[in-house]
Amino acid sequence: MAYLYNTPDDQHAMLKAIGVDSIEALFSTIPEDLRLKRDLDLPPQMGELELTQHLSALAGKNASPATHACFLGGGSYDHFVPAAVDALASRGEFYTSYTPYQPEVSQGNLQAMFEYQTLICDLTGMDLSNASLYDGGSALAEAVIMALNTGKRGEKVVVLGTVHPEYRQILQTYFTHLGIEIIEIPCVDGIADLAKVEETVNAETNCVVVQSPNFFGGIEDVAAIAEIVHKNDAVLIQSFDPISLGLLKRPGDLGADIAVAEGHSLGSAMQYGGPYLGIMACNDKFVRRLPGRIVGQTEDRRGKRCWVLTLQTREQHIRREKATSNICTNQGLFALRASIYLALLGPGGLKQCATLCTQKAHYAQTKLSEVERLEPVFAGSPFFKEFVLRDTQGNVEGLLAEAREAGFLGGVPLGQFFPEMNDCFLVCVTEKRTKQEIDALARTFSLIHSGSSTIHA
Amino acid sequence: MAYLYNTPDDQHAMLKAIGVDSIEALFSTIPEDLRLKRDLDLPPQMGELELTQHLSALAGKNASPATHACFLGGGSYDHFVPAAVDALASRGEFYTSYTPYQPEVSQGNLQAMFEYQTLICDLTGMDLSNASLYDGGSALAEAVIMALNTGKRGEKVVVLGTVHPEYRQILQTYFTHLGIEIIEIPCVDGIADLAKVEETVNAETNCVVVQSPNFFGGIEDVAAIAEIVHKNDAVLIQSFDPISLGLLKRPGDLGADIAVAEGHSLGSAMQYGGPYLGIMACNDKFVRRLPGRIVGQTEDRRGKRCWVLTLQTREQHIRREKATSNICTNQGLFALRASIYLALLGPGGLKQCATLCTQKAHYAQTKLSEVERLEPVFAGSPFFKEFVLRDTQGNVEGLLAEAREAGFLGGVPLGQFFPEMNDCFLVCVTEKRTKQEIDALARTFSLIHSGSSTIHA
Amino acid sequence: QATQLLSELSHPGRTAVTWPACDVPEQPIEDLIPGSYLSDKALQLPELTEGEVVRHYTNLSTKNMSVDTHYYPLGSCTMKYNPKRNERLASLPGIVDLHPYQDEATIQGMLQLLFELQGIFSEISGLPACSLQPAAGAHGELTALMVAAKYFKSIGEDRKVVLAPDSSHGTNPASAQMAGFKAVSIKSDPAGGVDMDDFRAKLTDDIAVLMITNPSTLGLFEKNMREIADAVHAKGGLVYLDGANMNAILGIARPGDFGADMMHYNPHKTFSGPHGGGGPGAGPICVADKLEPFLPSPVVVKDGENYKLNFDRPESIGRVRSFFGNVGVLVRAYCYILSHGPVGLREISENAVLNANYLLSQVKHFLPVPRGERCMHEFVASAGKLKQERGITAMDIGKRLLDYGFHAPTVYFPLTVPEAIMIEPTETESKETLDAFVQTLFRITEEDAELLHEAPHSTPISRPNEVQAARSPCLRANFCSS
Amino acid sequence: QATQLLSELSHPGRTAVTWPACDVPEQPIEDLIPGSYLSDKALQLPELTEGEVVRHYTNLSTKNMSVDTHYYPLGSCTMKYNPKRNERLASLPGIVDLHPYQDEATIQGMLQLLFELQGIFSEISGLPACSLQPAAGAHGELTALMVAAKYFKSIGEDRKVVLAPDSSHGTNPASAQMAGFKAVSIKSDPAGGVDMDDFRAKLTDDIAVLMITNPSTLGLFEKNMREIADAVHAKGGLVYLDGANMNAILGIARPGDFGADMMHYNPHKTFSGPHGGGGPGAGPICVADKLEPFLPSPVVVKDGENYKLNFDRPESIGRVRSFFGNVGVLVRAYCYILSHGPVGLREISENAVLNANYLLSQVKHFLPVPRGERCMHEFVASAGKLKQERGITAMDIGKRLLDYGFHAPTVYFPLTVPEAIMIEPTETESKETLDAFVQTLFRITEEDAELLHEAPHSTPISRPNEVQAARSPCLRANFCSS
């Protein structure tokens, strides 16, 4: 009953117009033996007040960055989201409309998507952007598909070991059962070994996947990798952190052919991992192989500039099994959020944000490395906003659990991804973390080490 | 800098167009000796992130109904606000527009206000409503002004002692220094003494102010009072609780000439007391004496139905000192919220809400009265959602402080308003309170009484 | 879509709300409340689904011009940008959901905010005492006049006259009247300032308060401010500053320094409180030390590390509003002020004045600005000549602007300028927008008079018949003669 | 106002964001990151104030039709009302702000919700195992097909063919292709169902999966469903249900009961997830027990009183997405389902089907509905006759509806109906709205053909030149040939 319109009187009138006696009769085309003969076994209906109490109770069972200083990263980041993003993206006209099949009454969404494509191109230094994909991980898989589909002979996919382990898992899932060989270059020092890249990439290589800043926060020498890749006529795919581009060279400047990213940091909350925003930008040559929606500019019959979905012959609803991808929905609302975020920050704001992350992360690395029990790992590599620490006592779990009691989400244990690193954890510092919080975390780790009772941040 | 548009280049271009050298020069009309020669002594600028952290820290120092089960009432109530109210009222077109001086581009606000007036008339059973006043207390003062201005000879204002003590204070502030006599009929039993009313109201009485449900939650015999008032040719002003009208007879049905209310319960949060919504409705005869904005229906030049601000000759911007009131702003946004709330609930929803309040409040009265230390006060009078308890140990402060530690905002101490009632407190039970919470409060009071350590709700 | 009224959309049996089942043992309602008190009629409220309510109000909203959608140079109303962060922060749990009767121990964060805000308002005004209670600017005027009355009573004086310039807001004389004073109007001089002769003539011994809007509604700083204030004080009177135009002088001049003894702020103007289609505002007042004892109760005080509400104020006028005040609006003002800091506040005024002077410099060439070459945060142009020559009125121009996507300026106020067009750009508009506005305004003054009389042409409705509305008032649905 | 692009509105030196000063000791950035890695070009992002951004996007939004503003009977997309409570609840602190790598101890509330939702989806589908990971319906298809591939591999079978009716969503064959299968199309019979002869002909021994949309995109329940499923199973194949049309059969028939081994949900259709101008959706899948080991990792399990993420799934296909999934969408689905309960869910479908049949009964008189007198939650009318007789196309009708304030139905899908007009009213529209829609539709079919070819006439733009857009793609600002 929650949102229904038909009252019993309405139903009666409508049934009469249809010429049947009952709603039941409308389902007569479903064979009797295929029907459910009982009520679903589900919790009973809740009105809004009850539901609110229920969800509030569930939320109350979670700790969150609202209650704990969050030093977690690894692909999902506690960046600040300006209020204007929420205010604008929550307008009903944006979030209760759908794919702009009728451009005449969808110019709001279409223009916003065209602006998104423009912003992503400007941000990445690439020629083209689509109107978004699901998330950073599946966007990377789509990039590989696109590279494989360009017709270059090689079918081997080379992936650096510093790429997000979950992204690498996704590539395995997508491609190994198709018989496509994925060659992972193991990472020893938290950064790509150029000699190994040189050694691995060859004429059979279709594409090379690099992430920079990489999973450990390290900044890869993408330009050098690009040289190796292009020498072998392969495609360079770079997964990047959009916030880092406030400081770092852009994928397009470094020689990437396809650039993909997890874009939720641009104005969307962490939401326990999704929905997020898959960014994909590329060189012009991929224009008719791009997956997902693309918006183009054109004119209406009166010569007025306007925007439409375009190049739809790439897409599944036209081409079916010959489409470049099976993608149908995009992440329009989160592309919108990213656009609003970038429009609010502008070049200066993004640079400052990236700078704050870098400064604070480096301060934190120094500070936390001073804790007796901890030592920095991969200390020689340049990094952006994340770095790895080793618990010399080998009890990452215990250390982080105690820190949690003191009010910190202190880091991501790395043993879950790299068994050999189960004494390590990844620390992330965004612009939201204060010196006070960093100092308090260092103090807390020290206190835990010395066995003193901890104090809450 | 936070929201400014002019860059130094803009400023330069503009100054040049104006023909002055500096912004400083634009202020030359302010005599030098009247200018401030230093910076204001204020906290330094905060960006959005810092400000968010600061406000979150301030909010974190407050307990609230989100963390404590709230049994506080006394004119401000923890009623449920459906999400749709927030979603709609937070649309920029509603909250960043102003008084609809240009009806052609304000039909949204004007129609919404006209609908508000309609809803209030239907709710109260009165002929007319204005488009809102500040709050319940000042609305009551405006009602008295309106009564005094109708030209009836009497100048005495009779106020029942069961009217909200703050509202009575406001009447004192507004009127005593003008030499208008305010006669308060003391309240002994938590309900009006009809004999005393009969005794007090006479030919010199201009108006009588009654509140029902009254400050103690009791339901007054308004119809009987109306008879006395009208027999003396005086005006009956009733202050009411809009939620109660889901069950109780309407002011218009009871004989009120003017009905006023605190309307925040209709879809607005408690906000530590404001902004709230002053509801005022009245009989037709007051039509040209009503304070505040009024919207009327008319037609445009093409014969289309539309709405405008009307009867403006009552108002200060036209009539200056001869206006019916000095009011300029109203509470448009909160009138809008009230309309949305009433439209969502409809007659059935409001009735159910009122019924839940009544059932739960009566259950709570019984349950809490069973606590050894507590006893009901004014137990004989019918009540709506509030009732008074006496702490037989005379330590209301201590009792409530301990309950607070256990997670309850347990009641409003009455000693602050009635020195003779400093062993009493007012308990309010809205539809949001659950049996579990009521039982837990009773258990907590019992535990406090027995000196056991309390448990958190 | 949305021109149907709720009552017309209503359909019996629909509702948007499902309440929980009653979880306490239910009793027949008549056992709880005597039947004679219970309503015997069904309420006539509309019956709608949630989706219908949402669609109705969403569509209604789009029939408004607003700051979020359009340039809105409505003079005297300071239609500046309303920051989204303020809305978010004022809605935080622990802020938006506090009950006004919570124990002080549970609201230290809120009291700290309000205490700091009292101090901030005092610092900006140069007047050391503050009450946050009044619910709106006009309410602040009334409150301050009551304070003045009580003050005079306390020193045994019986003063009855409140002076205010004829260009003042109507609220000034109306508040004076409500507070029991006699409102007397002072003429303006040709330059738009107080006519000093008329002022002196009316400055009698029983002057209680001079109410002055400075900068004035003409957008001018009163050049004789000091002399006027001194004269009032010399007679034993008080000076009240209508703070409607504080947006022009933040950090530049303080009312307390230029002679005011009392003032109110309009946080929805100066400090970006959203205008809400008419409100809510708030009307905090600041006063000189000698008036402090008379301010409404309570005020927030700091006692060691704790913040408290002080009710122990025996000379206070009492209360003018229930509970503490329009806290939600005050929280937004606090956020706005902290978003700027001392330098930023001054920059607000500098840019408000710069924008206004820039507009003035562009507009005066085709729409005379009778009072002065220079202005503060707003100015008043006149269509008097256009009316005389071509029959085009200020109203025509305002209506025609709507067609071009600009909200109209305030027209016909102040009353002292014929065919007044009062333009306040605010600091939160760009030079590009101002230029586009000026071009449009110019274009309109060149347009055909008939076209203008019939304007607007592209709005949801054309000009409404306001005379009919007032003559046969239809003030609720289904109750109109027509 | 809002047709200018951000890049055109940009003005050097403006910004909307002020970050805090760096509170840690600052070092030259080159000391932290080698200069060769640092960008040497200024970013070309637009420079705007907050107010400009707000005005731009607010005005942009009003150029969309949406469920909140208009009736939106877009077939196959289930444009039902998106409850406001879901938005509020999914944004609660403790829900919206959780980091995906928080320790399980800190997210017991979230895991409980997700665990319960897995069970709810299984109960509604009649398929006992659930993965919440896929990010969209098409992603769910792909995931399930990978699960199927791994399943066949585990039993040592090499199957290559995926069958799908020609009326299916394009995602079906595209997903099959991506998962490494060969997509083969089955014809429809004249009544819109699966052509059984063609089906039998194509049901070879190497059938891996039959993908079927039931109710179909024609809005019909496949009358041979049981027979089809049995035949596929007899060949050792699996049946996949495209759950796009689950809105028709909630609590009425369960895919697991009528032969499906796997299915996905579209929560943005069936369970009121907002469509967001194109997304996000989510694509949770449910599968039969034997397929459970192959589902993506992790899944949520309950261990005593605690909820955990189970990664220890050696036969799993692995991951198809980073982190847990589109949790924000799933939370909304959970809220929606709890808002209804078992009876309410069935009522959704009953009313969706009632509304569709009512519309069908009214529309068929002037727009033929080739496939059947009765439908489920949507139906497909045809303008084929109108086109033949008067040259009026489905597109013309759709465009003209925009003029009357209705979003167009889906046109030209499914491909099996000429000049298809696919109408899905959803359950959250009133009879009044349906009646108004029918009247308008009828009126349009009587209108002048020229008028329709030129429609829409009252929208922000007229029909765009889509050919030009595709021929000379201009896909970003300042980079267009034209």
UniProtKB/TrEMBL annotation, chains A, B:
Pfam families assigned to the protein according to its UniProt record, in alphabetical order: GDC-P
E.C. code: 1.4.4.2
Which reaction(s) does its UniProt entry say it catalyses? N(6)-[(R)-lipoyl]-L-lysyl-[glycine-cleavage complex H protein] + glycine + H(+) = N(6)-[(R)-S(8)-aminomethyldihydrolipoyl]-L-lysyl-[glycine-cleavage complex H protein] + CO2
Note the InterPro entries from the entry: GcvPA, GDC-P_N, GDC_P, PyrdxlP-dep_Trfase, PyrdxlP-dep_Trfase_major, PyrdxlP-dep_Trfase_small
Superkingdom to which the source organism belongs: Bacteria
Q: If you read the UniProt record, what top EC class would you report for this enzyme, in one word?
A: oxidoreductase
Q: Which Gene Ontology molecular function entries are recorded, alphabetically?
A: glycine dehydrogenase (decarboxylating) activity
Q: Which UniProt keywords apply?
A: Oxidoreductase
Any one GO BP annotation for this protein: nucleoside metabolic process
Where does the Glycine cleavage system P-protein N-terminal domain lie? Answer: 3-445
Function noted in UniProt: The glycine cleavage system catalyzes the degradation of glycine. The P protein binds the alpha-amino group of glycine through its pyridoxal phosphate cofactor; CO(2) is released and the remaining methylamine moiety is then transferred to the lipoamide cofactor of the H protein.
Summary of subunit composition and partner proteins: The glycine cleavage system is composed of four proteins: P, T, L and H. In this organism, the P 'protein' is a heterodimer of two subunits.
In terms of PANTHER family, this protein maps to:
GLYCINE CLEAVAGE SYSTEM P-PROTEIN, GLYCINE DEHYDROGENASE (DECARBOXYLATING)
User: Hey, which family's this protein in?
Assistant: Belongs to the GcvP family. N-terminal subunit subfamily.
The identity of this protein, by name, is Probable glycine dehydrogenase (decarboxylating) subunit 1
Q: Which species does this protein come from?
A: Bremerella cremea
